[in-house]
Design a protein that fits this description.
With 451 residues, this protein is an alpha/beta fold. Helices cover 29% and strands 23% of the residues. The protein contains ten helices and 17 strands. The protein has helices at 2-19, 28-36, 39-50, 68-83, 157-170, 192-203, 245-255, 262-277, 298-302, 342-361; strands at residues 90-99, 110-119, 128-135, 178-184, 207-214, 232-236, 282-286, 308-313, 326-328, 331-333, 367-372, 380-385, 394-401, 409-413, 417-420, 427-434, 447-449. The strands form four sheets. The chain has an eight-stranded mixed beta sheet with strand order 1-2-4-3-5-8-6-7, sandwiched between helices. The two termini are 17 Å apart.
Length: 451
Protein backbone atom coordinates (compact mmCIF):
# COMPACT_ATOMS: atom_id res chain seq x y z
CA UNK A 1 0.00 0.00 0.00
CA UNK A 2 2.85 2.40 0.86
CA UNK A 3 4.46 1.70 -2.51
CA UNK A 4 1.20 2.50 -4.31
CA UNK A 5 0.90 5.81 -2.43
CA UNK A 6 4.44 6.77 -3.38
CA UNK A 7 3.77 5.96 -7.04
CA UNK A 8 0.52 7.94 -6.95
CA UNK A 9 2.25 10.99 -5.48
CA UNK A 10 5.06 10.73 -8.03
CA UNK A 11 2.48 10.63 -10.83
CA UNK A 12 0.77 13.76 -9.54
CA UNK A 13 4.08 15.59 -9.17
CA UNK A 14 4.98 14.67 -12.75
CA UNK A 15 1.69 16.24 -13.84
CA UNK A 16 2.75 19.50 -12.25
CA UNK A 17 6.03 19.67 -14.09
CA UNK A 18 4.32 18.83 -17.39
CA UNK A 19 1.93 21.76 -17.03
CA UNK A 20 4.12 24.21 -15.13
CA UNK A 21 4.99 26.26 -18.23
CA UNK A 22 1.45 27.51 -18.82
CA UNK A 23 1.15 30.19 -21.49
CA UNK A 24 -1.73 32.62 -21.04
CA UNK A 25 -3.09 33.79 -24.40
CA UNK A 26 -5.51 36.48 -25.40
CA UNK A 27 -9.05 35.52 -26.34
CA UNK A 28 -9.41 37.01 -29.84
CA UNK A 29 -13.09 37.82 -29.24
CA UNK A 30 -12.19 39.97 -26.21
CA UNK A 31 -9.26 41.47 -28.09
CA UNK A 32 -11.61 42.56 -30.88
CA UNK A 33 -14.07 44.06 -28.39
CA UNK A 34 -11.30 46.13 -26.82
CA UNK A 35 -10.31 47.41 -30.29
CA UNK A 36 -13.87 48.66 -30.82
CA UNK A 37 -13.69 51.04 -27.86
CA UNK A 38 -13.65 54.55 -29.28
CA UNK A 39 -12.11 57.62 -27.67
CA UNK A 40 -14.42 59.71 -29.85
CA UNK A 41 -17.48 57.91 -28.50
CA UNK A 42 -16.31 58.48 -24.93
CA UNK A 43 -15.82 62.18 -25.67
CA UNK A 44 -19.29 62.49 -27.20
CA UNK A 45 -20.92 60.85 -24.15
CA UNK A 46 -19.22 63.22 -21.73
CA UNK A 47 -20.01 66.23 -23.90
CA UNK A 48 -23.68 65.28 -23.95
CA UNK A 49 -23.83 64.86 -20.16
CA UNK A 50 -22.20 68.26 -19.62
CA UNK A 51 -24.93 69.90 -21.72
CA UNK A 52 -27.46 69.27 -18.93
CA UNK A 53 -25.84 72.05 -16.91
CA UNK A 54 -25.95 70.33 -13.55
CA UNK A 55 -26.58 66.73 -12.59
CA UNK A 56 -26.82 67.33 -8.87
CA UNK A 57 -29.18 64.78 -7.31
CA UNK A 58 -31.25 67.64 -5.86
CA UNK A 59 -31.48 69.53 -9.18
CA UNK A 60 -34.65 70.09 -11.20
CA UNK A 61 -36.61 67.03 -12.32
CA UNK A 62 -39.09 68.90 -14.51
CA UNK A 63 -36.83 70.65 -17.02
CA UNK A 64 -36.37 68.47 -20.16
CA UNK A 65 -33.00 70.08 -20.95
CA UNK A 66 -31.40 70.58 -17.55
CA UNK A 67 -30.81 68.62 -14.34
CA UNK A 68 -30.47 65.05 -13.15
CA UNK A 69 -33.81 63.77 -14.50
CA UNK A 70 -33.11 64.95 -18.04
CA UNK A 71 -29.61 63.47 -17.87
CA UNK A 72 -30.81 60.04 -16.76
CA UNK A 73 -33.41 59.98 -19.56
CA UNK A 74 -30.55 60.64 -21.98
CA UNK A 75 -28.60 57.70 -20.53
CA UNK A 76 -31.70 55.50 -20.78
CA UNK A 77 -32.11 56.48 -24.43
CA UNK A 78 -28.48 55.53 -25.13
CA UNK A 79 -28.98 52.12 -23.56
CA UNK A 80 -32.15 51.63 -25.62
CA UNK A 81 -30.24 52.64 -28.74
CA UNK A 82 -27.63 49.95 -28.03
CA UNK A 83 -30.40 47.44 -27.31
CA UNK A 84 -31.41 47.52 -30.98
CA UNK A 85 -28.32 45.48 -31.88
CA UNK A 86 -28.65 43.00 -28.99
CA UNK A 87 -31.31 40.66 -30.41
CA UNK A 88 -33.56 41.53 -27.50
CA UNK A 89 -31.05 40.60 -24.79
CA UNK A 90 -30.37 44.17 -23.55
CA UNK A 91 -33.19 45.86 -21.68
CA UNK A 92 -33.08 49.11 -19.74
CA UNK A 93 -35.16 51.07 -17.26
CA UNK A 94 -34.85 53.71 -14.53
CA UNK A 95 -35.09 52.13 -11.09
CA UNK A 96 -36.49 54.75 -8.71
CA UNK A 97 -36.98 55.29 -5.01
CA UNK A 98 -38.17 58.28 -2.98
CA UNK A 99 -35.71 59.87 -0.58
CA UNK A 100 -36.99 61.74 2.45
CA UNK A 101 -35.09 64.65 4.05
CA UNK A 102 -32.30 63.26 6.25
CA UNK A 103 -30.89 66.45 7.83
CA UNK A 104 -27.61 65.66 6.06
CA UNK A 105 -27.37 65.96 2.27
CA UNK A 106 -31.06 65.55 1.37
CA UNK A 107 -33.10 68.59 2.42
CA UNK A 108 -36.31 67.89 0.51
CA UNK A 109 -38.28 64.88 -0.69
CA UNK A 110 -36.40 63.69 -3.78
CA UNK A 111 -36.94 61.06 -6.46
CA UNK A 112 -33.71 59.12 -6.94
CA UNK A 113 -33.21 57.04 -10.09
CA UNK A 114 -30.54 54.58 -11.21
CA UNK A 115 -30.40 53.89 -14.94
CA UNK A 116 -30.00 50.12 -15.27
CA UNK A 117 -29.36 48.10 -18.44
CA UNK A 118 -29.27 44.31 -18.22
CA UNK A 119 -27.58 42.15 -20.85
CA UNK A 120 -29.18 38.78 -20.20
CA UNK A 121 -26.90 35.77 -20.20
CA UNK A 122 -27.46 33.06 -22.79
CA UNK A 123 -27.02 30.07 -20.46
CA UNK A 124 -30.29 29.39 -18.58
CA UNK A 125 -28.38 27.38 -15.96
CA UNK A 126 -26.00 30.26 -15.21
CA UNK A 127 -27.38 32.83 -12.75
CA UNK A 128 -24.14 34.75 -12.23
CA UNK A 129 -24.28 38.56 -12.46
CA UNK A 130 -21.42 40.97 -13.16
CA UNK A 131 -21.93 44.72 -12.69
CA UNK A 132 -20.15 47.79 -14.06
CA UNK A 133 -21.10 51.16 -12.60
CA UNK A 134 -20.40 54.88 -12.62
CA UNK A 135 -22.33 57.72 -10.97
CA UNK A 136 -24.33 60.16 -13.04
CA UNK A 137 -24.74 62.85 -10.39
CA UNK A 138 -22.12 65.52 -9.65
CA UNK A 139 -21.53 68.55 -7.46
CA UNK A 140 -20.10 72.05 -7.25
CA UNK A 141 -18.04 73.32 -4.31
CA UNK A 142 -21.16 72.89 -2.17
CA UNK A 143 -22.89 69.51 -2.42
CA UNK A 144 -26.21 71.26 -1.72
CA UNK A 145 -25.87 73.68 -4.66
CA UNK A 146 -28.44 72.38 -7.12
CA UNK A 147 -28.71 75.54 -9.23
CA UNK A 148 -25.30 76.48 -10.61
CA UNK A 149 -23.58 74.80 -13.53
CA UNK A 150 -21.44 71.77 -12.71
CA UNK A 151 -19.82 70.07 -15.73
CA UNK A 152 -18.71 66.95 -13.85
CA UNK A 153 -16.65 65.80 -16.84
CA UNK A 154 -14.34 63.56 -14.85
CA UNK A 155 -16.38 63.12 -11.66
CA UNK A 156 -18.11 61.15 -12.86
CA UNK A 157 -19.13 61.50 -16.49
CA UNK A 158 -15.89 59.64 -17.21
CA UNK A 159 -17.16 56.60 -15.28
CA UNK A 160 -20.61 56.73 -16.88
CA UNK A 161 -19.05 57.06 -20.33
CA UNK A 162 -17.04 53.87 -19.66
CA UNK A 163 -20.27 52.11 -18.66
CA UNK A 164 -22.00 53.30 -21.83
CA UNK A 165 -19.15 52.32 -24.13
CA UNK A 166 -18.91 48.86 -22.60
CA UNK A 167 -22.67 48.48 -23.12
CA UNK A 168 -22.38 49.62 -26.74
CA UNK A 169 -19.65 47.12 -27.58
CA UNK A 170 -20.73 44.17 -25.44
CA UNK A 171 -24.46 44.27 -26.25
CA UNK A 172 -23.65 42.98 -29.74
CA UNK A 173 -22.17 39.78 -28.26
CA UNK A 174 -23.38 36.76 -26.34
CA UNK A 175 -22.21 35.90 -22.83
CA UNK A 176 -23.29 32.91 -20.74
CA UNK A 177 -23.62 35.06 -17.61
CA UNK A 178 -25.59 38.29 -17.14
CA UNK A 179 -23.96 41.72 -17.21
CA UNK A 180 -25.59 44.80 -15.67
CA UNK A 181 -24.56 48.30 -16.74
CA UNK A 182 -25.68 51.00 -14.32
CA UNK A 183 -25.43 54.76 -13.94
CA UNK A 184 -26.31 55.42 -10.32
CA UNK A 185 -27.43 58.66 -8.70
CA UNK A 186 -26.98 60.07 -5.23
CA UNK A 187 -23.26 59.27 -4.92
CA UNK A 188 -22.32 62.77 -3.79
CA UNK A 189 -25.25 62.73 -1.36
CA UNK A 190 -23.91 59.65 0.44
CA UNK A 191 -23.76 56.70 -2.02
CA UNK A 192 -27.55 56.59 -1.89
CA UNK A 193 -28.20 55.09 -5.33
CA UNK A 194 -25.59 52.39 -4.86
CA UNK A 195 -26.97 51.43 -1.44
CA UNK A 196 -30.47 51.30 -2.93
CA UNK A 197 -29.27 48.84 -5.57
CA UNK A 198 -26.95 46.78 -3.35
CA UNK A 199 -29.55 46.41 -0.59
CA UNK A 200 -32.11 45.31 -3.15
CA UNK A 201 -29.66 42.79 -4.58
CA UNK A 202 -28.93 41.32 -1.15
CA UNK A 203 -32.63 41.09 -0.28
CA UNK A 204 -33.47 39.38 -3.58
CA UNK A 205 -30.43 37.05 -3.47
CA UNK A 206 -28.83 38.18 -6.71
CA UNK A 207 -25.78 36.06 -7.48
CA UNK A 208 -23.41 39.00 -7.98
CA UNK A 209 -19.84 37.74 -8.39
CA UNK A 210 -18.14 41.06 -9.18
CA UNK A 211 -18.81 44.80 -9.22
CA UNK A 212 -16.49 47.15 -11.14
CA UNK A 213 -17.09 50.73 -10.02
CA UNK A 214 -15.61 53.59 -12.05
CA UNK A 215 -15.21 56.98 -10.46
CA UNK A 216 -12.82 59.75 -11.59
CA UNK A 217 -10.88 57.79 -14.19
CA UNK A 218 -10.32 60.03 -17.18
CA UNK A 219 -7.62 62.58 -16.31
CA UNK A 220 -3.88 62.02 -16.37
CA UNK A 221 -2.44 64.81 -14.19
CA UNK A 222 -2.32 66.07 -10.63
CA UNK A 223 -2.11 69.44 -8.98
CA UNK A 224 0.62 70.12 -6.37
CA UNK A 225 2.98 67.40 -7.65
CA UNK A 226 2.42 68.22 -11.35
CA UNK A 227 2.71 64.56 -12.30
CA UNK A 228 1.35 63.70 -15.74
CA UNK A 229 1.06 60.00 -16.55
CA UNK A 230 -1.56 58.03 -18.48
CA UNK A 231 0.12 54.64 -18.11
CA UNK A 232 -1.12 53.73 -14.62
CA UNK A 233 -4.54 53.28 -13.00
CA UNK A 234 -5.47 52.47 -9.41
CA UNK A 235 -7.77 49.65 -8.36
CA UNK A 236 -8.92 49.88 -4.74
CA UNK A 237 -10.05 46.80 -2.81
CA UNK A 238 -10.87 46.03 0.80
CA UNK A 239 -8.78 43.65 2.90
CA UNK A 240 -10.87 42.39 5.80
CA UNK A 241 -14.46 41.86 4.65
CA UNK A 242 -16.89 44.53 5.78
CA UNK A 243 -19.73 42.01 5.62
CA UNK A 244 -20.00 39.63 8.61
CA UNK A 245 -16.46 40.39 9.73
CA UNK A 246 -16.96 39.09 13.26
CA UNK A 247 -18.38 35.82 11.95
CA UNK A 248 -15.33 35.20 9.75
CA UNK A 249 -12.60 36.79 11.88
CA UNK A 250 -11.42 33.59 13.58
CA UNK A 251 -10.97 31.71 10.31
CA UNK A 252 -9.25 34.68 8.68
CA UNK A 253 -6.76 34.95 11.53
CA UNK A 254 -6.15 31.22 11.77
CA UNK A 255 -5.37 30.87 8.06
CA UNK A 256 -3.57 34.21 7.68
CA UNK A 257 -6.03 35.30 5.01
CA UNK A 258 -6.20 39.00 5.86
CA UNK A 259 -5.20 39.77 2.28
CA UNK A 260 -7.44 37.30 0.47
CA UNK A 261 -11.01 38.52 0.71
CA UNK A 262 -13.32 38.41 -2.30
CA UNK A 263 -12.69 42.02 -3.31
CA UNK A 264 -8.94 41.61 -3.09
CA UNK A 265 -9.14 38.51 -5.29
CA UNK A 266 -11.21 40.48 -7.79
CA UNK A 267 -8.59 43.24 -7.84
CA UNK A 268 -5.83 40.73 -8.59
CA UNK A 269 -7.98 39.26 -11.35
CA UNK A 270 -8.49 42.72 -12.90
CA UNK A 271 -4.75 43.35 -12.87
CA UNK A 272 -3.87 40.05 -14.52
CA UNK A 273 -6.66 40.22 -17.10
CA UNK A 274 -6.44 43.92 -17.86
CA UNK A 275 -2.70 43.94 -18.38
CA UNK A 276 -3.13 40.96 -20.71
CA UNK A 277 -5.37 42.94 -23.06
CA UNK A 278 -4.54 46.63 -22.56
CA UNK A 279 -1.13 47.69 -23.79
CA UNK A 280 0.85 50.37 -21.97
CA UNK A 281 -1.33 50.33 -18.86
CA UNK A 282 -0.18 49.20 -15.43
CA UNK A 283 -2.81 48.33 -12.85
CA UNK A 284 -1.71 49.36 -9.37
CA UNK A 285 -3.38 47.42 -6.58
CA UNK A 286 -4.18 49.79 -3.73
CA UNK A 287 -4.75 47.93 -0.48
CA UNK A 288 -7.55 50.14 0.77
CA UNK A 289 -11.26 49.94 0.10
CA UNK A 290 -11.03 53.52 -1.15
CA UNK A 291 -8.86 56.60 -0.96
CA UNK A 292 -7.82 57.81 2.50
CA UNK A 293 -10.98 58.53 4.55
CA UNK A 294 -13.07 58.78 1.36
CA UNK A 295 -15.70 56.57 -0.24
CA UNK A 296 -17.32 55.41 -3.46
CA UNK A 297 -20.29 53.44 -4.73
CA UNK A 298 -18.53 50.06 -4.58
CA UNK A 299 -18.62 50.38 -0.78
CA UNK A 300 -22.38 49.81 -0.81
CA UNK A 301 -21.84 46.43 -2.45
CA UNK A 302 -18.90 45.56 -0.19
CA UNK A 303 -21.07 46.32 2.83
CA UNK A 304 -23.65 43.86 1.49
CA UNK A 305 -21.16 41.03 1.05
CA UNK A 306 -20.36 41.33 -2.67
CA UNK A 307 -16.91 41.49 -4.27
CA UNK A 308 -16.48 45.07 -5.46
CA UNK A 309 -13.56 47.30 -6.46
CA UNK A 310 -13.04 50.90 -7.50
CA UNK A 311 -11.19 52.11 -10.63
CA UNK A 312 -9.67 55.59 -10.24
CA UNK A 313 -7.05 57.52 -12.16
CA UNK A 314 -3.51 57.50 -10.82
CA UNK A 315 -3.14 61.23 -10.14
CA UNK A 316 -6.21 63.15 -9.04
CA UNK A 317 -6.31 66.88 -9.68
CA UNK A 318 -8.29 68.53 -6.90
CA UNK A 319 -8.47 71.86 -8.76
CA UNK A 320 -10.84 70.05 -11.11
CA UNK A 321 -12.85 68.13 -8.53
CA UNK A 322 -15.81 69.43 -6.46
CA UNK A 323 -15.05 72.97 -7.61
CA UNK A 324 -17.14 75.83 -8.99
CA UNK A 325 -15.88 76.72 -12.46
CA UNK A 326 -13.71 79.84 -12.10
CA UNK A 327 -10.22 81.20 -12.62
CA UNK A 328 -8.18 82.46 -9.66
CA UNK A 329 -4.55 83.62 -9.71
CA UNK A 330 -4.15 82.21 -13.17
CA UNK A 331 -5.40 78.75 -12.16
CA UNK A 332 -8.44 77.24 -13.87
CA UNK A 333 -10.78 75.48 -11.45
CA UNK A 334 -13.66 73.20 -12.35
CA UNK A 335 -14.31 69.73 -13.75
CA UNK A 336 -14.11 70.65 -17.43
CA UNK A 337 -14.01 68.57 -20.61
CA UNK A 338 -10.65 70.06 -21.59
CA UNK A 339 -8.95 68.21 -18.73
CA UNK A 340 -9.95 64.71 -19.92
CA UNK A 341 -7.32 62.52 -21.60
CA UNK A 342 -9.50 60.43 -23.91
CA UNK A 343 -6.77 57.97 -24.83
CA UNK A 344 -6.28 57.29 -21.12
CA UNK A 345 -10.03 56.95 -20.67
CA UNK A 346 -10.12 54.54 -23.62
CA UNK A 347 -7.51 52.33 -21.96
CA UNK A 348 -9.31 52.38 -18.62
CA UNK A 349 -12.56 51.50 -20.35
CA UNK A 350 -10.76 48.59 -22.02
CA UNK A 351 -9.58 47.45 -18.61
CA UNK A 352 -13.21 47.24 -17.53
CA UNK A 353 -14.41 45.55 -20.69
CA UNK A 354 -11.71 42.89 -20.78
CA UNK A 355 -12.28 42.00 -17.14
CA UNK A 356 -16.07 41.89 -17.53
CA UNK A 357 -15.94 39.86 -20.73
CA UNK A 358 -13.42 37.38 -19.36
CA UNK A 359 -15.56 36.84 -16.26
CA UNK A 360 -18.87 36.56 -18.11
CA UNK A 361 -17.44 34.12 -20.68
CA UNK A 362 -15.67 31.94 -18.10
CA UNK A 363 -17.10 28.84 -16.45
CA UNK A 364 -18.44 29.28 -12.94
CA UNK A 365 -16.01 28.98 -10.07
CA UNK A 366 -15.00 25.52 -8.79
CA UNK A 367 -16.93 24.39 -5.73
CA UNK A 368 -15.85 23.31 -2.26
CA UNK A 369 -12.15 23.91 -2.79
CA UNK A 370 -10.26 22.23 0.04
CA UNK A 371 -6.70 21.91 1.26
CA UNK A 372 -6.02 18.55 2.88
CA UNK A 373 -4.98 18.87 6.54
CA UNK A 374 -5.23 15.28 7.76
CA UNK A 375 -1.46 15.08 8.21
CA UNK A 376 1.63 17.27 8.33
CA UNK A 377 3.95 17.42 5.34
CA UNK A 378 5.94 19.57 2.95
CA UNK A 379 3.61 18.94 0.02
CA UNK A 380 0.11 20.33 -0.37
CA UNK A 381 -2.90 18.38 -1.62
CA UNK A 382 -5.83 20.38 -3.03
CA UNK A 383 -9.16 18.98 -4.15
CA UNK A 384 -12.45 20.48 -5.29
CA UNK A 385 -15.73 19.87 -7.10
CA UNK A 386 -16.35 20.72 -10.73
CA UNK A 387 -17.92 23.99 -11.87
CA UNK A 388 -21.68 23.71 -12.32
CA UNK A 389 -21.89 25.82 -15.50
CA UNK A 390 -19.73 26.72 -18.45
CA UNK A 391 -18.10 23.37 -19.37
CA UNK A 392 -14.58 24.00 -18.06
CA UNK A 393 -11.64 22.57 -20.00
CA UNK A 394 -9.84 22.29 -16.69
CA UNK A 395 -8.56 24.28 -13.75
CA UNK A 396 -5.66 26.51 -12.83
CA UNK A 397 -4.08 25.98 -9.44
CA UNK A 398 -2.61 29.33 -8.43
CA UNK A 399 0.35 29.77 -6.11
CA UNK A 400 2.00 32.75 -4.46
CA UNK A 401 4.36 33.41 -1.59
CA UNK A 402 2.63 34.78 1.49
CA UNK A 403 4.25 38.19 0.98
CA UNK A 404 3.42 38.46 -2.73
CA UNK A 405 0.75 40.91 -3.90
CA UNK A 406 -0.18 38.80 -6.93
CA UNK A 407 -0.39 35.16 -7.95
CA UNK A 408 3.03 33.99 -9.15
CA UNK A 409 2.34 30.57 -10.71
CA UNK A 410 -0.58 29.00 -12.55
CA UNK A 411 -0.58 25.23 -13.02
CA UNK A 412 -3.16 23.66 -15.32
CA UNK A 413 -4.89 20.36 -14.63
CA UNK A 414 -7.91 18.56 -16.07
CA UNK A 415 -8.43 16.79 -12.73
CA UNK A 416 -10.29 18.04 -9.66
CA UNK A 417 -7.32 17.47 -7.38
CA UNK A 418 -3.62 18.18 -7.39
CA UNK A 419 -0.63 17.37 -5.22
CA UNK A 420 1.87 20.23 -5.10
CA UNK A 421 5.54 20.21 -4.03
CA UNK A 422 4.93 23.42 -2.07
CA UNK A 423 4.38 23.66 1.66
CA UNK A 424 1.05 25.10 2.81
CA UNK A 425 3.07 26.78 5.56
CA UNK A 426 4.92 28.96 3.05
CA UNK A 427 2.46 29.62 0.22
CA UNK A 428 -1.10 30.64 -0.52
CA UNK A 429 -3.17 28.72 -3.05
CA UNK A 430 -6.35 29.16 -5.07
CA UNK A 431 -8.19 27.35 -7.84
CA UNK A 432 -10.00 28.83 -10.84
CA UNK A 433 -11.84 27.16 -13.70
CA UNK A 434 -10.90 27.82 -17.35
CA UNK A 435 -12.56 27.06 -20.68
CA UNK A 436 -11.21 26.32 -24.15
CA UNK A 437 -10.87 30.03 -24.98
CA UNK A 438 -8.75 30.66 -21.89
CA UNK A 439 -11.44 32.56 -19.99
CA UNK A 440 -10.87 32.09 -16.25
CA UNK A 441 -13.29 32.33 -13.36
CA UNK A 442 -12.47 34.22 -10.21
CA UNK A 443 -10.10 32.23 -7.99
CA UNK A 444 -11.35 30.35 -4.95
CA UNK A 445 -9.11 30.13 -1.89
CA UNK A 446 -9.24 26.68 -0.24
CA UNK A 447 -10.51 26.03 3.24
CA UNK A 448 -9.24 23.17 5.44
CA UNK A 449 -10.53 19.69 4.69
CA UNK A 450 -9.69 16.05 5.40
CA UNK A 451 -9.79 13.96 2.26
Amino acid sequence: MAKKNILFHCFLLMQIFCFAQTTIIRDTAIENMVKEISADSLKSYIGSMIEYGTRNTLSTQTDPKRGIAAARIWVLNKFNQFAKTSNGRLTAFIDTTTLLPDKKRIDTTTLLGNVVATLKGTDPTDNRIFIISGHLDNMRSSVMDRIGDAPGANDDASGVSAVLECARVMSKRNFPATIIFVAVSGEEQGLLGAYFMATKARKENWNIEAVLNNDIMGSNNSNETNITDNTKVRVFSEGLPAFETEKNAKTIRQLGMENDGKSRQLARYVKETGERYIDNLEVLLIYRNDRFLRGGDHTAFVDNGFAAVRFTEMNENFNHQHQDVRKENGIQYGDLLEFIDFEYLRKNTGLNLSSLANLAKAPSMPLEVKIDTKKLGNTTFLYWKASISGAPKGYYVMIRETSSAVWQKKIFTTETQLLLPYSKDNYFFAVQSVNNNGNESLPVVPTPGRN
